[in-house]
């Protein structure tokens, strides 16, 4: 049996798949509570194992002793000093393959050195099987993201939802969860009364001779103009919504036409961004709304207010409106029904809604109402991920010069155009040679990747200033820098194969030949072993920024490694090439989870 198997037995089920930090933490937690059984009741919850800030002290550090000493002070059998508290923890550690040596500082810090054999075996595993996801309970998850509105242009807010949602879905799927990627498009709102009515007015023969509308924005604007100028038109529009929602065939026909046009436009953006969604728009829930309201009423949650049916909730000043005064249903009715469908019909135990932060209270009200109605089992997670605003250079909401919302397709085109220009510049300077086609493909890949990465690396809740210059910078924490780092890595392996005649395939088949020695190699190796810790954190806070931070750190550790350690032509060539390979597979996994493709050459 390998040392890893021994470890798994010794630590009673603590799996290394839990990630390096999580494994160490679990082991030190166990040792701490064994050495100091009263720690838990004294309020100590964790042994606080972290990576050492200064590598010279150790690889990892356990910082629990000081807090432990303070918490137990004065009690029976309390430690005489932080150092004594720490020493007892060390004495309680089980035999295990991770820890090589420990040393306790006078202040009670436990510095931990990992066993070289453990590090090497773990890196070999990464090369053999790829970076492993954390071991987690498998759940059924609805991710409600993108969700633009029919007949309206998708704006940068929808871009954020689309990019963040796609990354979260990919991470969830990688961890083995069952994921429903729902596009909750706004296809049933009051805007349709106006649009259908305008269609009837402007194109009376629309049924036999449908107009060729490719630009819905113009159509929308014209309809809105009519709506704003005429009371009569307004009244007619309101009636039309009621007609549509009660199934009038002519209305349905126009509605279908409008939805189809929009859908095609949305799909263009999804194709470019390599995003997959399943449409479950507002209209999908329409027939199920009355029974939802009945269920809420049976649970005693519905009351009458000025002719409307509402649900009042403890922590909110205004209620959910489940049936409007005119008998119609709105955003709240639809979302309550969507929650019920997701929990009861799809049997999901995790719902994640991704919209701008402005909708946070709407989502939390719906979640609270679902809980109050008794629809939510224990262990089910209902989460809203509210993101910040994308700002223009003036610090105000991102708009075009003329004040219109920025069209998503234009924005993506511009990123690609600028990237193409910068590649051309490098070619002109003789810094790179490639074919025209390859240059164009790289520009598109990096351009889209740069837009995505610039968004994902921010904490979701922060607002950020949109800047092509910053997102396309070759230095700093950008997609472009990461692509360069990856290409550098790939070129080392390529050179080994082409110029030094290393059989790279055979090399990868013997990953056990890796031997991590140099300080920079160790620093890189630890980073590699933190991968599943990061994936876990990424889902715990619904923050793809965690993964971006990790990828960036990995790239910088890799750069340090190749700067400080010669790879090609050195005595350690085999091992170092293997370390490059382990870094490569891990980087590529991060890229793909973030919705980007790693390039081998730039
Ligand atoms: N269509 C909405 C908007 O553009 C977002 C919908 C989000 N999902 C939901 N279930 N409410 O703001």
UniProtKB/TrEMBL annotation:
Q: Report if keyword Nucleotide-binding is assigned.
A: yes
Alphabetically, the GO molecular function entries are: arginine-tRNA ligase activity; ATP binding; RNA binding
Mind listing the UniProt keywords for this protein, alphabetically? Aminoacyl-tRNA synthetase, ATP-binding, Cytoplasm, Ligase, Nucleotide-binding, Protein biosynthesis, RNA-binding
Q: Which residues form a coiled coil?
A: none
Taxonomically, the superkingdom here is Eukaryota
Localization of this protein: Cytoplasm
Gene Ontology cellular component terms for the protein in this record: aminoacyl-tRNA synthetase multienzyme complex; cytoplasm
Enzyme type, top EC level: ligase
Q: What is its EC number?
A: 6.1.1.19
Q: Which GO terms describe its biological process?
A: arginyl-tRNA aminoacylation
Q: What is its main location?
A: cytoplasm
Reaction equation(s) it catalyzes: tRNA(Arg) + L-arginine + ATP = L-arginyl-tRNA(Arg) + AMP + diphosphate
Q: How does it assemble?
A: Monomer.
Similarity remark: Belongs to the class-I aminoacyl-tRNA synthetase family.
Name of the protein: arginine--tRNA ligase
Species source reads Ectocarpus siliculosus
- Residue span relative to the full protein: 305 to 906 of 906
């Amino acid at each position: 049996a390998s040392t890893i198997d021994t470890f798994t037995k010794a630590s009673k089920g603590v799996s290394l798949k839990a990630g390096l930090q999580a494994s160490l933490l679990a082991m030190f937690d166990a040792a701490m509570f064994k050495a100091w059984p009263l720690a838990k009741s004294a309020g100590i919850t964790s042994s606080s194992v972290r990576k050492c800030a200064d590598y010279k002290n150790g690889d990892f550090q356990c910082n629990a002793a000081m807090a432990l000493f303070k918490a137990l002070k004065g009690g029976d059998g309390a430690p005489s000093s932080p150092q004594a508290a720490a020493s007892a923890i060390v004495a309680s550690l089980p035999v295990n393959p991770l820890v090589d040596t420990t040393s306790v500082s006078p202040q009670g810090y436990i510095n931990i050195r990992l066993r070289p054999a453990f590090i090497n075996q773990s890196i070999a595993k990464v090369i053999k099987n790829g970076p492993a996801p954390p071991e987690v309970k498998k759940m059924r998850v609805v991710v409600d993201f993108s969700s633009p509105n029919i007949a309206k242009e998708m704006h940068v807010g929808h871009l954020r939802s689309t990019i963040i949602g796609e990354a979260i879905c990919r991470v969830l799927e990688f961890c083995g969860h069952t994921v429903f990627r729902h596009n909750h498009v706004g296809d049933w709102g009051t805007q349709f009364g106006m649009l259908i009515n305008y269609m009837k007015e402007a194109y009376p023969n629309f049924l036999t001779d449908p107009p060729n509308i490719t630009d819905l924005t113009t159509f929308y604007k014209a309809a809105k103009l009519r709506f704003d100028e005429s009371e009569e038109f307004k009244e007619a529009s309101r009636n039309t919504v009621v007609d549509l929602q009660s199934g009038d065939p002519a209305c349905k026909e126009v509605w279908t036409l409008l939805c189809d046009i929009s859908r095609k436009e949305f799909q263009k953006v999804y194709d470019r961004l390599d995003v997959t969604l399943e449409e479950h728009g507002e209209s999908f829930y329409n027939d199920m709304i009355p029974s939802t309201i009945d269920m809420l009423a049976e649970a005693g949650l519905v009351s009458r207010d000025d002719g409307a049916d509402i649900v009042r909730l403890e922590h909110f000043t205004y209620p959910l409106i489940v049936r409007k005064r005119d008998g119609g249903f709105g955003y709240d009715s639809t979302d309550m029904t969507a929650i019920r469908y997701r929990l009861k019909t799809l049997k999901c135990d995790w719902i994640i809604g991704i919209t701008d932060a402005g909708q946070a209270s709407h989502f939390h009200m719906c979640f609270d109402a679902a809980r109050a109605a008794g629809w939510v089992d224990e262990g089910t997670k209902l989460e809203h991920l509210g993101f910040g605003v994308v700002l223009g250079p003036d610090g105000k909401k991102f708009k075009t010069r003329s004040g219109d919302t920025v069209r998503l397709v234009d924005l993506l085109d511009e990123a690609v155009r600028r990237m193409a220009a910068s590649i051309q510049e490098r070619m002109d300077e003789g810094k790179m040679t490639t074919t025209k086609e390859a240059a164009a493909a790289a520009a598109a890949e990096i351009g889209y990747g740069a837009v995505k990465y610039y968004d994902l690396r921010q904490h979701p809740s922060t607002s950020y200033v949109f800047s092509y210059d910053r997102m396309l910078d070759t230095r700093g924490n950008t997609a472009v820098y990461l692509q360069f780092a990856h290409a550098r890595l790939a070129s080392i392996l390529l050179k080994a194969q082409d110029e030094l005649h290393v059989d790279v395939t055979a090399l990868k088949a013997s990953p056990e030949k890796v031997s991590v020695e140099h300080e920079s190699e160790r620093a890189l190796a630890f980073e590699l072993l933190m991968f599943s810790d990061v994936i876990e954190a990424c889902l715990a806070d619904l923050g793809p920024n965690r993964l971006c931070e990790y990828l960036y750190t990995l790239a910088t550790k890799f750069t340090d490694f190749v700067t400080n350690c010669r790879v090609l032509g050195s005595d350690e060539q085999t091992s170092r090439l293997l370390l490059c390979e382990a870094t490569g597979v891990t980087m590529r996994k991060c890229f793909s989870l973030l919705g980007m493709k790693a390039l081998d050459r730039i």
